[in-house]
Amino acid sequence: MASFVTTKKSFLFPILMLAMLILCLFPIYWIVITSLKTPVENISRIPTLFPQKVTFENYALLFKEGYLKHVWNSVFVTAAATILSLVLAFLASYALVRHRFPLKLNSLFLIWIILAKMLPPVVLAVPLYDMFAKMRLLNNLWGLILVFQVYTLPYCIWMLFGFVKSLPLEFEEAAEIDGATQLQVLRLIALPLIRTGLAATAIFCIIVAWDEFLFTMLFIRTPDLLTLPLVIVNFIGEYETLWGQLMGIGLLATLPIVLFARVVYRQMTSAYSLGLK
Amino acid sequence: MKKTILIILALVTVAGGAFAQKSVKLVIAGRDGDYGNAMQIAVDAYVAKNPNVSFEVLKLSGDDVYQKTVIDLKTGTGTYDIVLIDDPKAMQYQQAGWLVDLDAMFKRSGKPVDSDFISTVIDLCRYPNGPKGRLYALPFVGNVSLFAYRTDLFTKYGLPEPKTWNDVLVAAKKISESDPSIDGISFRGVKGNPILTAFLPIFWSFGADFLDAKGKPTVNSPEAIKALKFFVELSKYGPKSTPMNNTAQIRDGLLSGAVGIAPEVWPAWLAKLDDPNESKVAGKVKVTKHPSDIKKSSPMNGIWHTAIPAASRNKAAAFDFLTFLTSKETQKLMVMKAGLPPSRTSLFEDADILAKYPWYPAIRDALESSVARPRTLYWAEIENTMGAFVQEAVIGQKTPEQALNEANAKLTQILK
Amino acid sequence: MLTSGRANAKAPFFWFIFIPALGVMLWLTIYPMITVFLTSFQDYNYISGSRSWAGLANYVDILGDKVFRTSFINTLVYCIAATAIEVLLGIVLALMFYGEFKGKSLFMILMILPMMLSTMVVSAVWKTLFHYDIGLLNHFLQLLSLPRAGWLIDPNMALGSIILVDVWQWTPFAFIVVQAGLASVPQEIFEASVMDGANYHQTLFRVTLPILRDQILLLILLRTIDTFKVFSKVFALTGGGPGNATETTSYFIYREAFQYFKLGRSSTASMITMIAVAAVSGIYLRKILNTKEV
């Protein structure tokens, strides 16, 4: 089936590609140049497509005021939450695929996972807040890592379940015949085979955790522990919309994730392929 | 491998936390913007004199500081040692017993409560309000809404100093029609607190009020409807972006010369008014208390209270800072460096302050004439509700009658 | 699956590795949901601490609350519009850029950047672009001699503007999902169809789309779930205004709980929302689960 636009050699095609790219990437371009413009230029009534004067003062201010600390918070919480979710999800998926639990627990659990993904997180916010307050896990990065599981765990289970399911049984059965324990089969056979699936899941988990806003806003009480999304919101404050610094921090908050773009593309393409070939 | 990383990460976090500690650490839940700057100035001055005390100052939005402090104080977590409370919400904190009794702390320290504080202001810090109530907070800032207008434009178009709101409407119309590059008037239109705050001085001076003598909502009284109709009329001479305009837009508009009248301004916004480096209208703006209508000028009282949560673990240290914060010297410092209006009478007569901000006596006038918002546990909801309906009227989605009738019904429900 | 004979001996291991995830999920979702369920029948003011049984009064109240109804409708409109536009655009883009061509990898990688940005960053930059006075979009309109648009100010436009942001951010997702599906269909199927004399249209509707049916349904489900939860964008861009134009159920619940501290009402609103989401998703779930073996 040929492409919608008849042939790739038509001169329309590159133009179309360019048009799409501009639509897609223009806001990102805007982030970059706004962060490089002076405050005066940013509030002028005539927006400029190129900075009249390129300045790094926004970034200098950001570093001086210690925003690296927030980058660290985001990195730490995201990484830890992802690792935790991957471990829990992998173990659970393996169990769900390889074992039939009584009382239709398998189906129930998986349906529950889907329902949990559908919940607007704000619905759980109040009771979780109460619970975490009693356990003294508020205002604490470890508490955040735990509560992030509300977002990341269902996601990881959903994804890893699919990957584990596609593992051929033969390898594991062969290992069992050779006398391997269940744990060894899990660790030495299943785990390595699922490496790419884990990587794909990890990346999506990272994107979700990195983006989290609501629980961080509610649970974190002191500014030192804030993650990047909250710092960004604080910038859109009542008194000053420091566009330059806001975009600067936006860029810093984006770069780590964007580095993964290539991997995301590869993984998504294989994950969502129909496997008909 | 992953486990090792986790353990290392854990150790680093704990170590980092340990290194950050000093003898006493006070956590302040404060506001952002100019309030945050002022608080920082006070904190820095205090630390210079008391190096064994360290601070963590949160600079939060109004909504955020409310939400965080309520939850913290309710659960008795004790994260904060000093909290900033918006005046209309103070009653909730006072009534629930979340705050330390400052009368007792003053007695214990042997110092009397300063009589220098402006009486209308300090009375609000007491519960029940009035000179006989117990003191639960000290006023952080003598904040009150003010009225500002361009004297040069008024002279140019032969307009008299606006003494009534009708004068304001006439002037706004004249300026807008004569000069399309200038907005005759500009006020905050974001729904909720901003637009309501802009509206209240008009609301009150037209003779309307929130509750009648029996405590029932009367926001759809004939006076109120008249006030809202007037407000909607006034908005016609303001910028089209009014519904999205908040503090930054009004302040920038005034300082850049694009606005003729700003009927709701706060002292903190005007700090740079006469600074030729930041303002194009230095010396051309007069700041006064609001015009009147049937009732007297009714600036809205908007002080911020500073109080100590009962759950704080550093009460004595917090109290010491609190008295420092509201002392004459510190307040003067905050006025001179951050433009935050003081709550002490003596400072309104201080020569240095008057030299820098010749319009400051207007604040004292306004404070003495000010009206405080109703004392109720449900202010957050009432404010948001009224603010939403007022905005609907201004953007033309409802007529003023409709908006206020619905608002009144909602308020009745809230207060049930 | 395992045979029953060996199942018993192996079961403990599987329970052992399953329980941690099960436990976390139960603790973090089921327990709170039970609390929300119970609180929805109570009149609970967090600040004063007063708590009393109210039966169905909250439900009557919330369902009759004009702001809630508006927020619900807004959320539905947002959900349906955003999902529909994204899925359609994703399909169109996948069809447009189908096949191999020079620079495809790089092109695709660049196209998916929007969905990788943090929502706050996206909201921040679009807030700048939408700004009435100094925003770029209005600047362009002015250059074209068109009147400035109140992107986030005009109550008739505001919701559409937020939908626009979501479409910008997530169409790449739809694009890449459909693209992946399309690319994995063997050429022979299309060639066979062409040989049978089918034209482009016929191939598209009788061959291509049916093959992609489940893929597209999954995509619709995912976007529906995601858009229904919208909160961060509303929080950052409009705060629910102007008027109630961009009120959404998540924002309504947030405000009742964390600004008014009326936990009974927020719980009730939560329950109503959850029932709606479950119902809507149930339809898709049934379609998907029928074809997919659980």
Topology overview:
The complex is a heterotrimer of chains A (277), B (416) and C (294).
Chain A: H1 12-35, H2 39-43, H3 57-64, H4 68-98, H5 105-118, H6 122-134, H7 141-165, H8 169-177, H9 182-193, H10 195-211, H11 214-219, H12 228-235, H13 243-258, H14 261-271
Helix pairs in contact in A: 1-13, 3-13, 4-7, 4-10, 5-7, 7-10, 8-9, 10-14, 12-13
Chain B: H1 2-19, E1 24-31, H2 33-49, E2 53-60, H3 62-75, E3 82-86, H4 90-96, H5 102-109, H6 119-124, E4 126-127, E5 134-135, E6 138-141, E7 146-150, H7 151-156, H8 165-178, E8 183-185, H9 193-205, H10 222-235, H11 247-255, E9 259-265, E10 285-288, E11 304-307, H12 315-325, H13 328-338, H14 351-356, H15 361-369, H16 379-394, H17 400-414
Parallel strand pairs in B: 1-2, 1-3, 8-9
Antiparallel strand pairs in B: 3-11, 4-5, 6-11, 7-9, 7-10
Helix pairs in contact in B: 2-13, 9-10, 9-16, 16-17
Chain C: H1 4-39, E1 42-44, E2 51-53, H2 57-64, H3 66-96, H4 104-111, H5 113-116, H6 119-130, H7 136-143, H8 158-183, H9 187-195, H10 200-228, H11 232-237, H12 249-258, H13 263-291
Antiparallel strand pairs in C: 1-2
